[in-house]
Amino acid sequence: MDPRPAIIGERFKDIKRLIAVAGGKGGIGKSMIASTLALILSDLGYSVGLLDLDFCGPSTHAILGIDGVYPEEDKGIVPPQVHGIKFLSIVYYAGDNPSPLRGIDISNAVIELLAITRWGSLDFLIVDMPPGIGDATLDTVRLIKGVEFLVITTPSKVALETVGKTLRILKEMSIPIIGVIENMKMAESSYVREQIRKIDVPFGGEIAFDRELEDSVGNAVRLLETDFAQNLKQIVLSTPAFKPQDGG
Amino acid sequence: MDPRPAIIGERFKDIKRLIAVAGGKGGIGKSMIASTLALILSDLGYSVGLLDLDFCGPSTHAILGIDGVYPEEDKGIVPPQVHGIKFLSIVYYAGDNPSPLRGIDISNAVIELLAITRWGSLDFLIVDMPPGIGDATLDTVRLIKGVEFLVITTPSKVALETVGKTLRILKEMSIPIIGVIENMKMAESSYVREQIRKIDVPFGGEIAFDRELEDSVGNAVRLLETDFAQNLKQIVLSTPAFKPQDGG
Amino acid sequence: MHEWALAEGVISTALEVAEREGLSEITAIKIKMGELQQIDLEIFELALREIRQSQMSMVTNATAELEKEAAVLKCRVCGREWAFGDAPLADEERESIHFLPEIAHTYITCPGCKSPDFQFVKGRGVWIDSIVGR
Amino acid sequence: MHEWALAEGVISTALEVAEREGLSEITAIKIKMGELQQIDLEIFELALREIRQSQMSMVTNATAELEKEAAVLKCRVCGREWAFGDAPLADEERESIHFLPEIAHTYITCPGCKSPDFQFVKGRGVWIDSIVGR
Ligand SMILES: Nc1ncnc2c1ncn2[C@@H]1O[C@H](COP(=O)(O)OP(=O)(O)O)[C@@H](O)[C@H]1O
Ligand SMILES: Nc1ncnc2c1ncn2[C@@H]1O[C@H](COP(=O)(O)OP(=O)(O)O)[C@@H](O)[C@H]1O
Ligand SMILES: [Mg+2]
Ligand SMILES: [Mg+2]
Ligand SMILES: [Mg+2]
Ligand SMILES: [Mg+2]
Ligand code: NI
Ligand code: NI
Ligand SMILES: [Zn+2]
Ligand SMILES: [Zn+2]
After folding, report:
1. C129 and C115 within one domain
2. What ipTM did this prediction achieve?
3. CATH top-level class for B5-239?
4. Which atom of ligand 1 is nearest the CA belonging to A210?
5. DSSP summary character for residue C37
6. Which residues of chain A have pLDDT under 50?
7. Mutation probe of ligand 2 site: the residue of A30, A153, A158, A211 with most atoms within 8 A of C-beta
8. What is the CA A141 to chain-centroid distance, rounded?
9. Average pLDDT, chain B
10. How many domains are there within chain D?
């Protein structure tokens, strides 16, 4: 019998809101939004954690410029606090090296991290998800009780088709969806917004394509100053889910 | 004992070159390049197959506008020919519905398709890979003898860091790498080219960001006319690997 | 009739085993036929026979014993187990599962909690139980 | 000292079992300690004892029996099996595997064919063998 699942509930019991940032495809801005969202919420005075569950392509450490820190061992592992955010990623253990993991290994590693990490009390834990609905997403839904999803898409037809599938699965499993963000918008169009509303999922807002964003990668201070972050902050301020007291 | 692996070699024995289009991250243009590469090679007079192994986010059918066709059953399954390309994707079976598959299921489905599909004789089989190195990629490397990789990146730091990991794994496993294509280039810079050369992997060429590409999604004829396709065709014509007689 | 391709796999595997183990002949093959894949047993048996007898080989005179195995699915979320036979499915859905059993995750959800996150406990598809030779 | 967290998992699981099975007391827990995770057995045993005795519960008086299990890895490409003990590893690499056994795929490749595509046949980590109660 696996001793780990039974302790996972205990690990999350003092976290007010658990928000997984997901989407159908890769490269649509999930990690950028998860990282910047964590920064914005921390900047607003909330206590925030960020968990990178994209073991195949972890990127939040690179986006936030996190390097040279390591969890403490204290009856488990305690994530270090960087830019005010308690941060946990597989890169602590894999470094710059590749982790060629099959699904069964991803599942085991997710369960292990959820079981041994002591987040303490938090207003928000933001979870950066890999693309698609595979082991990491299914285990998140299965093991993190009360998790809510923030779903990202771009205006591209293929991205929208794929995100539609993710939304269908989440709805079928009765997982709460905070909203869908349309990222990297280049032209005026209400197409995505309408499609999302049609399937009865809340539309969360839009973020414009920001040519200068790439130059801020690796620098949390500059990241918060980008148009991208400003767009996202508007969404945060106007979305009721981003108040910790509303959560469980 | 699994009866399927023993027959897979037989299924590929009349295919001259097997090319997997891969990369570290999602959203870097793997599917767009795999689809357009298949079109270009077919247009050049070669016999071409296209196999979409991104079961979580299949996109090549949407890019090529393939719809309403289905494999024939004849001592296995025989992929239908569309735009001159023998095309196989999980969408034949999943339709527009989501396929929430764990790694173990992806692995099983990959093995099944490799074992039952009769491609016949081909100059090229192009395989569109999912992001990262997971079950689909590990099984491709394990079961498709002679497969070569065409690896995609973008100029973004995070994409480059991730693709570097994929390249390391492929090199460690002694899998041939045709080259690395730098896609969605927006500004002049030789940074990616230099980084790739540093790790002793052939640089395959560059493809500019093409604002009009999205409008050609779903239309194979228009796709071939884009600047994107022109860029890719130049790469095809100048890369020795894209001659079938060079292969095994 | 794609069952032929899987029958080829069984015969190729038997020949590989014969070679690896240095046998001079395969005498018997036992195969589990998982219900999920809905293989037509008669067609499969016929395919096995034709492939075996199409040329003289170490497997030509082997007997093939097919045994049906009921498919049982188990939910990873709520732990519920159920029989595939119970799933309400349209004909095209069954047909898709016939070609690619993993597609079950697209058309079936747990009768207890509606999750698509279940495993095949048994009865997925064609599986070689044993190969006997001398 | 992250072993404490896993020991908590063992005790929580025992309590869950007691509740589910309607037991009044857990008397014995048998645990397999997989080598890959390199858990310090003394620390783990101490943690188990402290957690058990920190408050009166159905598990307070249970005995815990720990059994070491050697880690065996098997390559999915060439089939080779080897012992984790043989892998040449730097201290930090061992430490990373201690926290996250799957990280073995980052630092170990098959001694036969250099593939990172191997499975843990046994000895991954902490595993509850049996829980006995009344
Ligand atoms: N609004 C935006 N404007 C410009 N570039 C963006 C925007 N959002 C994301 N990006 C860029 O897109 C790329 C992919 O983003 P990322 O967050 O890594 O995607 P994912 O996590 O979905 O794979 C990154 O290079 C990122 O900098
Ligand atoms: N050179 C390019 N210029 C403009 N857009 C591109 C280019 N290459 C790819 N894209 C767009 O980027 C998005 C992701 O491409 P896709 O091929 O689906 O990536 P992947 O298969 O790597 O996830 C698509 O919307 C596609 O149209
Ligand atoms: Mg990401
Ligand atoms: Mg793709
Ligand atoms: Mg049929
Ligand atoms: Mg230690
Ligand atoms: Ni059939
Ligand atoms: Ni420890
Ligand atoms: Zn269930
Ligand atoms: Zn090996």
Report:
1. no
2. 0.96
3. alpha beta
4. 3
5. G
6. 246-248
7. A158
8. 13
9. 95
10. 2
